């Protein structure tokens, strides 16, 4: 493991949305991509958020079984080592092989080695034919504060947002693989989930083209959205990192203005 970097004196927690293209059903290639991005990460970053299925990609047929990864397998261990070397937390998605089922899973890998997992609760279209849905919500302590995890299509479900409001979250991290023709909906939903929860939202989208299955193009458009629903920063379609500090004072000011949703009388 390489020596940890010297982080500059930055008071605000800083998140990097690591927008990238993926190779469907090629974990070795994707793990190499994620490790390289972590090694080259801006030294200000405390957390690196990667797109949906960052380690495996996705295709809705039998090839997915060969690409699925175990939570305790060498691929996740390699990414966890890279995150620890960079002294950042990493949020990465993958098709999880759970033995008797497969899931669309996120792993939050803290630099101290602790791991937290979330299985996508709302599967989109052909995901339902090859994956099982998760049945639990996940909130994790991050440098940003209490952070809820959602995956892509989960954004559409207002009751998920409301449940995470009740869990008193300060932020949402949302890996996605949104189709380019519907990019406007991704933009809208990221802003809505920030505004209806009065919290930061960080969405990291897959970019590039689908490499297996039907042709398709992904939207990219990773974004950091303020607690008032305004876009703090956004990417287009290119492969690069969106690095943004999430000033706690912005969250405090907005909650002072409109009230913390979790603290309102029900």
From TrEMBL:
Signal peptide: none
InterPro entries: C-N_Hydrolase, C-N_Hydrolase_sf
Keyword Hydrolase assigned: yes
SUPFAM superfamilies recorded: Carbon-nitrogen hydrolase
UniProt GO MF annotations: hydrolase activity
PROSITE patterns in the record: CN_HYDROLASE
Domain CN hydrolase: 13-248
Keyword vocabulary terms for this entry: Hydrolase
A Pfam family per the record: CN_hydrolase
Protein name: Hydrolase
